[in-house]
Every structure is written in C-alpha cells, then in structure tokens.
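Case study B.
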Amino acid sequence: MRGEETLYLPGMDHAGIATQNVVERELAKEGLTRHELGRERFVERAWEWTKIYHDRIADQTRRLGVSCDWTRERFTLDEDLSNAVRTAFVRLYRKGLIYQGSYLVNWCPRCESAISDLEVIPVEREGRLWVIRYPVVNGDWDGPRYEWTSGRWAEGATEFIEMATTRPETILGDTAVATSPEDPRWRDLVGETAVLPAIGRRIPIIADEAVDPGFGTGAVKITPAHDPTDNEIGIRHDLPAIDVMTDTAEMNEQAGPYAGQDRYECRRNIVEDFEKEGLLVRVEAYTHSVGTCERCHTDIEPRVSTQWFVRTKPLAEAAMNAVREGETVIVPKREEERFFHWMENIRDWCISRQLWWGHRIPVWHCGGCGEHTSGMTDPTECPHCGSEELHQEEDVLDTWFSSGLWPFSTLGWPDTDAPDYRRFYPTDMRETAYDILFFWVAREMMLGIEMTGQSPYSTVYLHGLVRNENGEKISKSMEDIDEYDPLDIIDAYGTDALRYTLMTSSTPGLDMNLDPRRLEGARNFANKIWQAARFVLMNTSLEDVAGFEAPSASMDLRLADRWILSRLNRLIENVDRLFESHQYGEAGRQINDFVWSEYCDWTIEASKVRLYDEEVENRVPVAVLLHVLETSLRLLHPFMPFVTEAIWQALPGETKEGDALIVAPWPEADGTLLDDEAEESMALLMDLIRGIRNRRAEYRVTPGKRIPAMIASPDAGDVLAKQQDVLCALAKLDPERLAIEESMEPPSQAATIVVGRTTCYLPLAEMVDLEEERERLSEELRDVEGRIAHSKELLAGPFAERAPEHVVQRERDKLEDLKTERVELERRLETLG
RNA sequence: GGGCGGUUAGCUCAGCUGGUCAGAGCGCCUCCCUUACAAGGAGGAGGUCAUAGGUUCGAGUCCUAUACCGCCCACCA
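Model:
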C-alpha cells in the first residue's frame, strides 16, 4: 500500500526430528519400526507425510489471508535449497569451522540421535539421592576377593569414600572419585585408589575445583562419559571416558553384570546390590531437574559420541556486532539482552543427527586412509590417498542448519547475481515468536553474516506466544494440536476476526491467551463496519458522487464534518507513528475506537439530520461520509483484509484510487484538516447531548419524545445555534421550544446540565422531582468544590513555578471552568430553594 | 543460582518517551426491535493501578526492596 516492492516468501522447513518422530509413530501403529522399513522406504513415507501436511499448512496460511508470493514458495529439501545447504557446509568445512569429534552430547535414546543443547528441556523430578561408598585400597585391603553380589565383595575393606549420586547406573562408567581440594574430610585420600564396585576397576581419588565441599559428602563419583561436569573434570585429569550404554540406553558390555539391562532396570538392581554389599549408606528424597527430549520427552542421556560440530565463537561474535552496531534491531529491545547473553555463552553447535530425514552430511570417509573429505561434487576417490573405498556419512544435518540459511537460500543464493537475491537481500523484517530467537534467528544471523557478509535482516520483531487455558504454548508439535486449528476459529468467527484479535490482544513480546470473547468482539466489529458501509451506500446517489472530491479545508464544511476529518487525520498520524514503533495492537484499537465511536455513533448519527432532510443538498455530507469510510478501510486493511476489501469494492469508483484495496495507497495525514477549534466545539456539543440524554434517562422521559430546552452560554451560543438541528436530533429536543441565549433567568422546575460555561435547563415540569434534583446538584457541587480545592492547592504550591508553562496554564483554565460551573450550580440550587 | 516478564474494574486485557490515563471488550443494572446494525443503540454502577519505601512540583507510568504467578538461562553430583 505504500508502493514499495515487497516480498513475503512462503515456505516450510522439513522439521527433521519432528517429522521423523511422527512418521515413526505412524509406523508403530502398523507394527513397524523404521529399521524394518529401511532408510529409503522410510524417507518415502516421510515425503508422503510432508506433502499432506504441506497442503494443510498452505491452506491454513491462505485462509489466514497471508498475502505472500506463492510462486516463490520454497521447501528446505528442494534441490536449490539443498544446494545452498551443501555450499554452506563445504565453505564452513574448508574454513575449519566445521569439525568432527568425540564429545559429550545430549543423546535421545528414543530418537537414537544426538540433539542440541536447545532441544533439551529440563523437567523437575522427584528423585532420590543415594549415598554410597567405595572401598579404598590401603595396607589392610587391596581389592575384593569375592564375587559381586556375594554379599562379601567388600569384605575386609577398612577405609571407604562416601559420595552421593542421583544416577547409580552410571557408576559402571566411573573412572575416578573427586573431592574438593581443600576438603579436610577426604584430603588424606587424595592420590589414593578406590575400587569401583561391581566392576572392580581401580580408580584414582582426585581433587578438583568443580567439586562443591558443601554438597552431600563432599566427594563425587566421576563418570566422564555420562555427565557434563564429570566430562570436564575428566579432561582436566586425563581420565578415560567409558560409555556404558547402547544407542537405546541399555547397558552395554562395559556394564559388566548389568549388560543388557535397561538403564532404569539397572538402576534398581545396582542399588539393591549395593545394599547387599553394605555399600549403600542411605537414601534421601531429592528433587532435581532431568533433561528431556523436546520432541519425544524421553530422558536425555549425556553421552560421549562422535558428531559433527560448528565452531560458533567467531560466528557469534559477528552476529553480536551486527546487533551492537544497529545493523539489526531486535524488538522489543530487552530481547537483545537475552540474545547477547546466549551468544556470549554459546557452545559449539552439534549439527549431526542420527536421523534419516534431512540433508545427508556431504562428507565421505575413506576406508583406505581414514581421512574424510567434503566438496560440492561427490568424490570418486580419496584426495588423501587415492583410495576408491569411500563411504558417505550416514548422519543428516540438524534442520536448523538449513533453516538458518532461509533468508538467502530461498532467494537464489549461492548465486549472488540471482535477481531475487540482489533485490531482496538483506531482508527487512524477521517476524517470529520470542521462543525461537536462539533456535532460528541466532542461527540465521550467524550463518547469514558468515555466508553473505551481511546480517539477514534489519529488524527482528518478536511477538509473544499464544497460550491455551493451561498456560501451555500452542505449537504444532502439541499432542492435541488439532484442538487448536485456526480453521475452526476462522469458521466460527472469520479470518478478519482472528487476525484482528491476534494483533490487538497482544503487546510486543508478551504472551496472550486467545479469549473467545475477544474473537466475538472482533467479529462484531467487522459486522459494524459492514453495517456502516451499508448505511453510507444506501444514502449515496449517483449525483452525490458525480465529480467527487475528497473533502478539504476549503469546502463548506459543517462542525461535525470538520470534527470527523480532524479526528481522522489525527488517527492517521497516530497509526503511522504506532506502526513505526511496532505497536500494532494499539493501532488496531485506535482504529476500532475511531470507527465505532466517532464515525458510527456520532458522525453517521449526526449526518442523518441532513440526509433525511429533503430540503438539504447531500453532496458534501455524503462526500465526507464516503471519504472517512474509504480512508478507514485503508487503515484497517492490514488487520481485516477481507471485509475491508469487500466493502471497498462496493464503493463508487469516484471515491477511491486503484483497482483493489490491497494495492490502494496508504492514507497520508493532511495537516490542513487538523482543527482544534472544531474538536473543542464538538466536544461541548457532545457533552451537552450526553448530559441531556442522561437526564432524560434519569427522569424516564419517553424515548423519542421531544422536550423543550433552554441553553445559556456566554461564549458558545453561536456554535450551538448553528448545530441546533444536530442537537435537537441527537438529544431529542423540540426545536420549537429551544432557546439559546448568552444568559437567562433559569426556570424554576427544570433539570440542569452544566458543561463548562454552558448551562442547559430542561423544564420538565411535573416530571422533575425537586428534591432529587437538589440532591443531585448538591452532589455535583461537592464534587466540583473538591476539584477546585485540589486545583487551587496545586497552583498555590511549587507546581506553578516548576511545571512547564503549558501544563500550568491548562490547570489554570481548568480551575476557571470549574469556578464557572460552581457559580452555575450554586445559582441553580438557590432557585430550587 | 542468575536474568526477564506479569500483578490495573467481577472476567480477559490496553495504557508509548512521567502532567485530562484511570481505559476497552465482555459481564452487571435501566431503558429502546427509532427506516445501517439487537453480532445493535442510549444511559448507568464498578478500580486507593500487588505491597512497602524512595525520586519528582507531579508516578499504573522512574528507582529500591518484598510477595505471589510465569518464562528463560545455568555443569550443583
């Protein structure tokens, strides 16, 4: 609408681990595992599933009215995107930013794959803390002489070292026991040797800074292959890391007597055996957090394994610079802190997954020399030794690796001359929920800058999450996600209502709950505009729009016209300012307020005076109605594209520019139509009308019954006189019995309305209960007096000198008005006795 | 253990850079099927803006604590 070339490119990623899990779940229903099916056929199944869900997601997107360019739709497994993935991988590989190594990773025994730190969800568990002891080799005892589980395994041992653990099954992989360097309890044992129960391995007792002397017994078992801290300690002390589990977290041959048992089965058994051997000191209840798989919720097993990593430090540094220097701005600002914190503490990114669904890592291992090689074309012989015994890496890449290239891989990159890439990269805005800042945005920033030299976008706009009634975030991987299909909401309330609600019930970065009452309200709003448009069109004749001109300050406009045009232009200014600062919700609410209250309730109602009067020329009022409606539609279009477009299409051609609202020019504020005087006068008129309606309601005057009124106004008499017809129509006054003077003698039996310097009397004769009227006026007087006192106090104090002049002046004006009101109220009370 | 967010009318939530900001919708009360709209119109009632201090002429709006609720990071066995 602003005339700028805009690309909104739709597409999807292949969601590697999530898709693989879903497909495996489907296979399970058929009694099959992926291994039984084989890689090739499994991938075929994944493609089938992907196609079904692609169509479903695309349909949802279309019905949401997302106006993107479907001719450019992309999928991360498309040939060109796969080419981009390979290019990026090879470049990083050659630059030494990708390496293979054996490190401790998060292993999901159900997915049978490594996952990244971000994919591990910590969950609080009521667990146990087992305090156990290992015998120490000394002069009296130099090792077990009986079988494990004989009950005599530790017979003869005289010295023990005690420690606490939450995971007894990992004992089998222990390669040391550690204490804090300055712990007096165990100081003498440091340097000695303990014997690992069950296995009989001799392990050193060491001292390390990482051990907290304040926790447990001050000593800790060290399992470098199954615990992050232990792994680091292991590296520091050059300890072996013994993996005691299989890919599915069963105990392997390293687990001695427990080989073949599930890790939890092993835990139960080994605790029992410890007890039997007199090595279990005590058991405590203990709540701690356990890492679980984001996708399948299985407990993660930290495990040393050979994986591929991206060296993230240099990439993170560049990404942080882009944000520091303002090349990319994150909205809301506070999210930048989270971004920096994460980037500063980033660890190398494990990008290999032992899955079948995804981009297979373009690395070939040589059976001859053991080296590996990577390149844009598949090698036929090893460049290191010439051997033809090459085998491609089985692992696939983390989905986020390919998703991280999205801002440019979709635009033709690596061809930097590709027209779309030249035109649209770097992009303007990355809009997403804040939960994906690290997963995706951070990776896009790192890979984008590394690959293209430019940050992929200038603004990252982070909105909140939609949560359900339990406060859980609604995401497509939820078990009962079908309960939250946007299409159901669209069927019930309409797309416009859903969009409007999503945009107006949130504020940047804060979560929202989708309240059905809001959806209903939004639907009603859409209906309201529809009805308003119907009214305007019903009252528009061909003559009215012949030679239509948008209302301008030079036209012969009445107060209500000048007022609504002034309000409209103020609204345009506000909406522009709010859009600029990403306050979309506030913009939507203001448009709603304007359309519903100011346009429908006042402008349209006031216009009826003229439209229904045969004597009056309709051209100008109709022009104003049409213009304000048409402009409002344009403002509202981003929020409610369907209803606004439908109405807009029905408007007479003379009143609009362009073939469709979606490409009509965005409204521009016209400063010449801002009119403080009109706004002030209209405010008086409106207050007066509200006051009269209020009294009518209180005195139960028959609705629609015309009543007399007397208005005394020293300064607004002319304005009100000119608006007599509007006043009479909206307040249901009898024009024959309406008097407007500078001042007048108040009638005895009348209800009184005081608005600033203007006083209105409604001589309601027998209807007025004098006692009630007195009470009501007294109450009003008390209120006014209180406000006067407050205002005087304020003006007498330091406020008068310290506050800005215009603020002080406003307070003085307010005081003057209050004083006038007080005089009127007092006079009135006097006449009432 | 750090860090962040929330706490405003009965309910769900807005309130940008401190000065008509005490608001909206729903609900509630009273009227009204008036020729755009009952998915509506008119008029009402309803909140010491979590608590305690502080800064300021002036604070839902800034600062400091506290209390709940939620989230994010973190190697406490």
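Residues 23 and 29 of chain A are 10 Å apart (CA to CA). The remaining cases will be described in the next quarterly update.
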